[in-house]
Every structure is written in structure tokens, then in C-alpha cells.
Amino acid sequence: MASNGYRNGTGTNKGAIKPPASSNIRSSSFKSRLPPSSNHSPGSALRRTSSASFTTAAGVPGRVRVAVRLRPRNAEESTADADFADCVELQPELKRLKLRKNNWESETYEFDEVLTEFASQKRVYEVVAKPVVESVLDGYNGTVMAYGQTGTGKTFTLGRLGEEDTSARGIMVRSMEEILVNVSRETDSISVSYLQLYMETIQDLLDPANDNISIVEDPRTGDVSLPGATHVEIKDEQSFLELLRLGEAHRIAANTKLNTESSRSHAILMVHVKRSVLGEEVAIPTESDKSSHFVKPPKPLVRKSKLVLVDLAGSERVQKSGSEGHMLEEAKSINLSLSALGKCINALAENSAHVPIRDSKLTRLLRDSFGGTARTSLIVTIGPSPRHRGETASTILFGQRAMKVENMLRIKEEFDYKSLARRLEIQLDKLIAENERQQKAFDDEVERINLEAQNRVSEVERNFTDALEKERLKCQMEYMESVKKLEEKMIENQQKHQHDGFMKDKCNGEGPGFCEDIAVIKKLLEKETHMRKEAEKEVNKLKSQLGQHMDAGAGGDAEILKLQIALEDEVHQKKKLEEEIIILRSQMLQLTFEADQMRRCLARGGSGNAYPGLDSPMSQVRDSLSGHKTPVSALFDQVGVEKILDLLESEDANVRIHAVKVVANLAAEEANQERIVEAGGLTSLLMLLRSYEDETVRRVAAGAIANLAMNEANQELIMVQGGISLLSTTASDAEDPQTLRMVAGAIANLCGNDKLQATLRSEGGIKALLGMVRCRHPDVLSQVARGIANFAKCESRASTNGIRSGRSLLIDEGALPWIVQNANNDAAPIRRHIELALCHLAQHEANAKDMINGGALWELVRITRDCSREDIRSLARRTLNSSLLFRSEMRRLRIEL
Ligand code: ADP
Ligand code: MG
């Protein structure tokens, strides 16, 4: 169908088909995009790379594409040529054109595209210009140029604005439309220059006063620019249309005979496209991906490409146009540029060594378009009239030659320092802002934590103080109540005792009730201990929290320091309260103990004595317990020996007295002695002997020491810790018979240790013992006598075993006169101890002489006769009989046993 549509198109094809311009024409589609770099043929490409490239990237070959467009007959032609066939016949499906020579001969030419008189403006744009525009958007230079005889439709093809009919819009408008759709308003920019080349002068169509613009070539890259030309930034299609209208109004149009609308100047529209892109090989950080800041900065690139749209002046010969005078000059100039273009294209098509680019301004301006780095499309326009057959033929030949021109397409891309700097600046500002935000958030958080910590500390402080106060009050109340109850019980017991005289009944009656009380007190104490432990835990927790808070925020240091001081105060307060609690407990312990004693005394019908006797200190405790722990011991377990011993050093004298009493009572029980000594109780008690200001303390301490001194291991400890000198000092200072009794008892116990004999004497123990006889109290004297008896017994044992010899140390220390004096003391315990002492002394011959001289013999004789104890009587007799000196003295005195 298509071939039928052409007039004179059938049966006339006698001529041979002209060979294609080059072998690769057919295989390349006119629309094809840039070939991949692997298709690049270096041999052909390198030949022309020098001209306009300013990047170092290797180019890709891109031949100049040529389309031919036939204008429909105009009104004149329709009339004048009515009887003639068109000079051309088109075969668009074969992309061929036949040019008739005459009625029977024609020549066939192949083009990249053959556009018939029916081709729409849209199709023309898509086929001819769109691939070029797309290349420009990709960063390549591009050229679309219309060549043809005046009146064949160059301006129609390129420059129509299509204001009344949008389908009539030409390539200029459609190209801009496409560019505007594809660029980014933010990062890209488009500007336009519109120029006219007329008689080798470049005029600015956007500024007519600017009528001699010079061409500048970059010596390094060979790139051509027109720095003097006006560049107008294009934001939308409307502003572009206005610009074109303005340009058109300025365009010099000279009428010719051929067509009143045709122009004899070359119109050049330059569209500069600047696009920012990022290098593909580098990861692009996203807004949300904060971690990739500065990690791999993308490589910012800028692509500065240029689309050149050239509406050439008519290609017809001057003489035919009928120009005269000035018009003739003008036609020559027009032809100068056009013929220079033709020569260049010929040279390029034939691979000529010299391409006369510099011959005209047009060829200089278009150096990148032909044989350069741009993608170039040429549209040659022809008319159908056989009258212009010659012009049409030369136009076709121009197009054919242009098809042979091979360009080396190269992307116009360079590193975008400005954009990089801008991007980094923005990123930096973002980071600064982010940092500021984070810092503020951090400060707020620290402040919040401090405040919270402060609140919590004060809340716990409050709770803790309340709890302690409550506990203290409760303890006090309980203590008062216990005291009251015990007093009531005591009174009740005393009354019962007086009335009935039968303590058996009393014991049975009150025992269980008392035990219940103790149990209650024990429970209370347990509860209290538990509460205290809880409070301690809370304090520790708070301390650790405080530590954490201090770490978290250095800013809140001062505040936390204050809180710490407050907390320390609180701890101190708590310690004081705890001490008070211990005191209360020890008081309770003491009371319990006294009550215990009282009960036992009542049970025995004796008088109340809080401290067990020295002779048999543990008997009272043991007798009623039958293997069970006493209530006192149980309480002692709860309170803990260390805490009681701590109280011995309390600043409060009352507390000290209480504590020492408790310790003394505990020391009376053999089971407690080891624990007391282990906890350093002995040392503490010895220290108390120095507290001259209080007799009670000294008395009770001495009693406790006396009890502890019953144990052999403790005796050595007492000596090691200088106890004998402390006891001696007390013995010489004290006046109170009870104190002296306790001190004497303690020394008496030490006297019974074989290992300590020498030390006792050397450290003044014997002297101290004998010194105490100044107090005539029988209890004191009894302890002194016991000590002497113990010492004498050890000495005699050592003498018998051959460990020692010589006179008794007792005699050395001057004890004998007192011994003799009190050998017949009225008090039975004194008498018995002295009788035993005399027997022991007499057993050693070294003492005999002194004893005889001191009157001891008479006493020994008396013992053999008067002593109420048979064992002692016989011991005395045996002793006297076994001594030579005693026997001879008895003989001399005529004493017979
Ligand atoms: P040139 O710029 O080559 O001198 P113009 O573009 O001015 O030619 O066209 C000359 C006349 O022909 C104009 O009136 C134009 O409208 C008309 N014309 C050109 N090409 C076509 C076409 N393809 N279809 C219809 N009219 C056309
Ligand atoms: Mg024109």
C-alpha cells in the first residue's frame, strides 16, 4: 500500500540502487540508544577524539543519522505542477527515496529514515530528535540540524510553536518539553541561548544589541563556547515559548522569490543541561541511615551537556533566488557557511586528513556536531516540485554524505566539587544539630536521674527514720513492761514466800509464767533483729544505687554528695540506735539473769546474790538446768558476745556497768567462757581493772576474771596479758571487801597452776595476795588462805618431783607469820586452807627450820590433834613423822603425836 501511495512510484524504477553510505547503516537503528562501550571500535573512534571532549572517558562511536522529509505540495505547486509528477518517490518501509532523472530513469537512495509528506510532527520528533534529546539527558552533547532548500519546511520541522494546534509543535518545543519532564528542579538546571548567524556574524536573538558574539575555544579541550551570549534559565514550557517568540521576532528575515517566509540566516538554539548525579560505584547514604555518615561518601558528578538545534538558511543557489545588490553579498555569505559545512562533511565522509573547520563560523560552531563527540541527527527537507529537481538532488547528496560522518560520543561529566562541598556542609549541619539534640537529651536525662535519686533517697531516709524511731519506742516500751512484770513477780514471790514459808510451792507456781515472759521477750527480740536486718539491707541498696547515680551523671555530683552526707548521718544515727537497742537488750539480759538468780535463791530460801560464789561458781547455774540452755545463755546467743563486749568500752558509765555485769554472769557459766575469751573479753575485763573511778566496775570485772581464771588455759592467758600486775594494783588500791575478795579469788586460782609459780612471785602476785589480809573480812581472808594453800601444794608437788629445791617462796615472801597466826582461825574455810598449806609446806625439809622458828610446828601438832577432818589430821601426822628436823625438835620439846 505504501508504494501505491506515491505518485509516479511504480514501473519507473530502472536505475540501480545506490549502495548504502557505509556497511553498518542498515544494521543500526536510527532510534538506537548509545551502544555499550564493548561495541566500541577503537580504530575508528580514536581518530577524532581530540576535538570537543573534556572528559578522559573513552567514547563510543555514533554515526550521524540522516532522515529525509518531503513537504507536501503547496497551493502554488498544486496549480503550477498539476500536470507533472513529483521529482521524488518515497519508499518509507524500505527507507528509500527515488529521485527521478526523467520520465524513465530514477536513482534510489537509502536514508536512516524516510518521512513522507504525511508524516506527523510527533513522528518526526520521535524518529529524528528524541534519541538525541535522550542522549543529552544522559550527559552527551546532541545536535539536530535541518538542511534544505528554502521553503521545504526546515523551520516548519524545527521551529513551529504549535500555539493553535499542539500537534503542529516542532522539534524545539517538543525537545524542551521532554527535557523539562526528565530533569529535577532541585538538582538540575536548564538554560537557553538563541543565536543567529548571518553573514558570518553571530547575533544574540535574545538581546539584539548584542550583535557580534565571538566564538571561544578551550585550548585544552577544544570545546567551543559563546561566553557573550545571553543564557536564560528555563523553568517551564511557557517561558520557553515566550523566549522562542521573542527570538523569532528578532530574526532577520529576507524575502526571496521562493518563499516569503523563508529566512536566509542560520538560527541556532542552544539548550544547556546541567545535571547532578552520584557515582554509581559508591553507596548512597539514605536519610534514615545515620550510620553511614562519612563512611563512603558518594562521588558527586555534574553532567553539562548541550543540545544544539540548527535551522540552516536555505541551501539553494544564489542566482536562482534572484537576490541582487546587498542581497547578493548576503547570499554569498550564506553560501560561505553552507559550502564550508559541505566541505567539512565531505572531508569527514572521506576520512580526509584535513577538515576545514575553521573556514566558517558555522563549521566552528558545529565542530562537535560533525566529527566531534555529539550525537547528531540531520533532517534534510525536500519539496516535491520537479522544477527544483536540481536543488533537491544536491540536498539528497548532502544528506548521503553526512551519513558517512562518524562521531565519537563522549559523556560530558566531571567531578562536582561544588556539589560535594554543599552536600558535606549540609551533612555537617545535620550532624551538628543532631549532636546538639542528643546532648540536650543526655543532660535532661542526667537531671531526671538525679532528681529521681534525690527523691528516692529522701523517701527511704524518711521511711528508715520512722521505722527506727518506731522500733526504738517499741523496745523501750517492751523493756519497761518487762521490768514492770519482773518487779511484780518478785514482789509476788517475796510475799508468797513470807506467807507460806514453802518455796517449793512458789517455784512450781511461778516457773512456767516466767518462762512464758522470756519466750515473749525472745520473740520480740527476734522480730526486732529481723527488722533491723531489713533496714540494713535497704541502706546497702540505697548506697549502691547512689553509687550508680553518681556514675551516671557527673553533673549531679554536688547534689549526690549532699545526699551521701545525709545518708552517712542516717547511718550514724542508725548505729546509735542499734547501740541503744543492744544496751536495752543487755539490760534485759541482766534483768533476766537477776530474776533467774532471785528465783533460785527463793527456791533455796537464801538471799539474792547476782554473782555466783567463787568456790563453786557454776554450781548454781548447773543445778536447775538439767542440760537445757538457760534463758540468759539463749539471750546471749541472740545478742552476740562481740556486741556485749563492745559495750564494755561505752562512754556511758551505766552502760559499762551493765555490760560488765552481763559478762561476769556469762563468765560464771563454763560453756560461755571460751567464747568470751576468744572474743577478747579477758583483755577487755583486765583493762576495766584500771578504771579506778568506779568500784562496781572493778569489782564485777575482777569477779569475771576470777571465774575465767578457773580454767587452766585462761590462767596462762591472764599471765601473758600482764593480768597479775593489774590484779596486784587493784589489790593494793581497792578498799571494798567484795572487790578484794574477787581479786584474791582470781590470784588464788592462778596460785593453783604449777607452771605459773615463778612468774606469780616475780610479778608480785604473792605479795599482793598477802597484802590483802589488811582487810579483815573473812571472805577475803578465806580467798587468801586458799591461794596460799594452792601455792604450797604446787610447790610441794614440784619438790617431790625433784623440779624445785630450796625454801618455799611463800616463806621467802614472809607469809609464814600470817599463816601461823590464822592457823586456828574461827572461820572454818580459812582454817582448813591454812591447815592444808601447813601440811604442804612441812612436807619439804628445806622449810622445816623456818617453820620451827616461826611456831608452825606447834600448829601442825595442834592439827594432828584438833582438826575436825580425819584426812588432814593423818596428813599432818605423816608429814611431821617423815621430817628429821621436826622429829628431833619434837623430841627436844617432848612432844608426842
Ligand atoms: P523553510 O524554513 O525551509 O524555508 P518553511 O518551514 O518556512 O520552509 O516552509 C515553507 C512553507 O511550507 C510554510 O508555509 C510551511 O507551512 C509549509 N510546509 C513546510 N513543510 C510542510 C509540511 N510538512 N506540511 C505542511 N506544510 C508544510
Ligand atoms: Mg525557514
Automatic annotation (TrEMBL):
Keywords tagged on the record: ATP-binding, Coiled coil, Cytoplasm, Cytoskeleton, Microtubule, Motor protein, Nucleotide-binding, Repeat
Organism: Gossypium mustelinum
UniProt similarity note: Belongs to the TRAFAC class myosin-kinesin ATPase superfamily. Kinesin family. Ungrouped subfamily.
Gene3D superfamilies listed in its UniProt record: Kinesin motor domain, Leucine-rich Repeat Variant
Subunit structure: Interacts (via C-terminus) with NEK5.
Coiled coil: 421-470, 518-594
Keyword Manganese: no
UniProt-annotated binding residues for ATP: G148, Q149, T150, G151, T152, G153, K154, T155
Name of the protein: Kinesin-like protein
Compartment list: Cytoplasm, Cytoskeleton
Molecular function terms, GO-annotated: ATP binding; microtubule binding; plus-end-directed microtubule motor activity
GO CC list: mitotic spindle; spindle microtubule
